[in-house]
Amino acid sequence: MTGKQPVQANSQALAGVLPASPAIKDSPAVERALNRSKLYLLVSWSQLYPEDDEFLDYVQCGEFVDDGRAALDALDQALDGIGGERTKLKLVLLRKQFDLIEKVVASECVNWQLADLQAEHRRVFSNVITLDCPPYETLFGNDHVFAQSQVMGDIAGFYRAFGVELSRDIHERLDHLSVEFEFMHFLAYKESYSRCHDGADKTQIVLDAQKKFVKNHVGRWVPLFCRMLVKKAGSGLYKHMADLMAEWMDFEVAFLGVAPQPYSETDYRPATFNSPEGQAYECGAQDQGNELSLLLNEVGAESFLDKKEQDKDKEGEGPVGNA
């Protein structure tokens, strides 16, 4: 799979097409991680503004739906009862969402040109930050710019802890939904790598990071964003993408065993965000060929995850190493 990726590595990286069913050791756990990673990547890519034909071609040829179904089938086979009946039910509902996306592509999008997809994206998301369904975490539950800056700093801390930096190819903020889902894609992929090549300690660091990022970030604001996106879109491709995201978040919360406190409509009190000290945030890295650049640097990861709550001033310290 190709596509524009919102984040890139600042040191060691892996390249390769994300496989659906690799035959590798500790297969069930690795299968779960790889295919969760794939689903995060699909959703992440769907929310970016389409600057070229790549995503449209991927959707129109059917590979978006095919890859999603393959990931769900592999997850189903490797689930091993994790998350109980809730995760099994969510897999069924996620399959239905891909069926609906397939139908809307066949009925509405099959003859689209790039300009049509761009126009639909602008209709839903606007050319500026729309308050109807803003794809930015800091606009949820933070009615003061200082609170927004604090949340933005926490997000940046996660990225920095794993050696992730934002690319300059696509201009976006680091709290954009696509960037945060791309980070979860990376963490799940990194889990699969760690299970094959690293010890239990490093794998646990990555697992803890996934749980904390879902509990404290995407699990809190994405459900409300999805409801707002459904209302704004009304129908069509992005409406079904929103339903897909909502079901996926429910699956992840159950799978990871976390209990985020999701925002409600009454919590939505957006304030205008001003980047601290005039800093601009950018994201986006162009994937070259069919290579998916993955991030494997763990600079400060253990320090960030284990000591952040105890000593924020020392958040960036800790052992440095490569996976």
Detail the topology: elements first, then pairings.
Layout (H helix, E strand, L loop, with lengths): L3 E2 L1 E3 L3 E2 L12 H20 L7 H7 L2 H16 L5 H26 L4 H12 L19 H17 L2 E3 L10 H21 L2 H34 L3 H20 L28 E2 L7 E2 L5 H7 L16
Antiparallel strand pairs: 1-5, 2-4, 3-6
Characterise this structure.
- The protein is mainly alpha-helical and 323 residues long.
- The chain has one domain (4-314): TorD-like, CATH 1.10.3480.
- Helices cover 56% and strands 4% of the residues.
- The protein has ten helices and six strands, in the order βββααααααβαααββα.
- The chain has helices spanning 27-46, 54-60, 63-78, 84-109, 114-125, 145-161, 177-197, 200-233, 237-256, 301-307; strands at 4-5, 7-9, 13-14, 164-166, 285-286, 294-295.
- A two-stranded antiparallel sheet has the order 1-5. A two-stranded antiparallel ribbon has the order 2-4.
- α1 (27-46) runs antiparallel to α7, α6 (145-161) packs across α10 and α7 (177-197) runs antiparallel to α8.
- The longest helix has 34 residues, at 200-233.
- It is globular, with a radius of gyration of 19 Å.
- Residues 9-23 and 272-323 have low confidence and may be disordered.
